[in-house]
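Work Package 4 report. The design task specified in the project plan requires that, given a folded chain encoded as structure tokens, an amino acid be chosen for each position. We show below one input record used in the internal validation round.
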């Protein structure tokens, strides 16, 4: 009996990547009795990520949410505040695999509020315009 390598058949499966659906429960309007998909699900993610403080809730990983709460009440000039808000919003959103870029920020102040409008480019080629009040 010879001691040598045993010939084994090599099999390679070629499969196309499966695209996951973005369907999720509608958290903001119907007490989770219906679902949303595509752009509306992405809008819900954007809203939820910008309402959630990063590293505060153990249920989320350290990439989810934002750090805008650390900027509120700080004594910084308007240009630094604007630059930091843009960076923090981009960091909160860009890690989602459906988002290609976040751009075209318009920041408006009124008394104690800050209104931010920005565009989110999706990987599907669409553009979603969002408005946030801080």
């Amino acid at each position: 009996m010879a001691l040598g390598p045993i010939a084994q058949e090599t099999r390679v499966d070629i499969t196309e990547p499966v695209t996951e659906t973005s369907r999720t429960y509608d958290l903001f309007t119907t007490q989770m009795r219906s679902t949303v998909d595509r752009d509306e699900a992405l809008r819900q993610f954007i809203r939820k990520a910008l309402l959630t403080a990063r590293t505060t809730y153990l249920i989320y990983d350290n990439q989810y949410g934002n750090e805008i709460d650390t900027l509120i009440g700080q004594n910084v000039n308007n240009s630094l505040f604007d630059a930091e808000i843009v960076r923090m919003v981009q960091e909160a959103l860009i890690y989602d695999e459906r988002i290609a870029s976040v751009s075209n920020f318009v920041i408006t102040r009124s008394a104690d509020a800050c209104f931010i409008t920005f565009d989110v480019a999706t990987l599907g080629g669409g553009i979603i315009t969002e408005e946030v009040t801080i």
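The first helix runs from residue 38 to 51. Validation will be extended to a larger panel in the next phase.
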